[in-house]
Model the fold of this input.
Amino acid sequence: MKFLDAILKPLRPLLLGLWLGAAIFFGAAVAPNLFGVLRAANLANANELAGTIVTRLLSIINRGGFEIGLFLLITAYFVGKYERRLARFAEMISLAILVIMTAVSHWVISPRMIAIRASLSTPIDQLASTDPRRIEFDSWHRYSTTVMGVAVVAGVIAFLIIAGARRSENQPR
Done:
């Protein structure tokens, strides 16, 4: 069991930290800059192109969050058996929220947005803001950003708990 602890304890915060970094960098830098660069090129379908690229990249972020979150949720039973119950409960809840949010984004929200885009004969950004299809798409987009925000916050909370548990283990008693 000590061998398993030696592998899992450093691996868990590393994986979560990698996903958090990717998700935050994607939302704060990649997506807005991709839209900005393509719009600056004055392409008629700049938003459509950027949206297609962002959708593909978001798929990687969501799948990664789902898989890493699930791995961390499962391995939480094998590490930290001496942690306080409240910390363990908060970690498990945060990881469950991360898993649920990334799953909803990947398997519910993104497919709906893709279907709306596919059903249109013109790019989404060329529809009037009052068009029901545009309103529906914009609504799903708000859900998408909210769900990703909740996943990131849950991930940060889990990361702080996991890192705090590792730090307290390494301090002399």
In short: The mean pLDDT is 92. Residues 2-170 form one domain. Residues 2-40 form the longest helix (39 residues).
